[in-house]
Amino acid sequence: MGNMTPDSILVQNIRALLDARRIQDQALAHYCGHRSPWLSKIFRNERGVTLRDLGKIAAFFSVSVSDLFRPQLAVELYERRQQERRSGERRSAFQDHAANTSTATARAQHR
What we know:
Layout: H1 6-20, H2 25-31, H3 37-43, H4 51-61, H5 65-68, H6 73-87, H7 95-110
């Protein structure tokens, strides 16, 4: 992925999440309490994202705030989407991630 900044990773991941779930930009903007152009301005680096908005974005997608900054997230979503297209299968973008996380959590609790 090269030398990506946290801002560029965040933007790439938000775009990937919207695309993977086939959600319009304005739905996320409205959920966060903003008008439609808000997200476009973030995508163009014309404005930043507040901590409050990061929390709302994460809640909107049912992911953690740290997931929004995970460099490989967009690649994983893209690859999963390609697999779905080839197989005709439709899954939640985070179905596997959630299963892996809950399995790891259960293992940690039993130690």
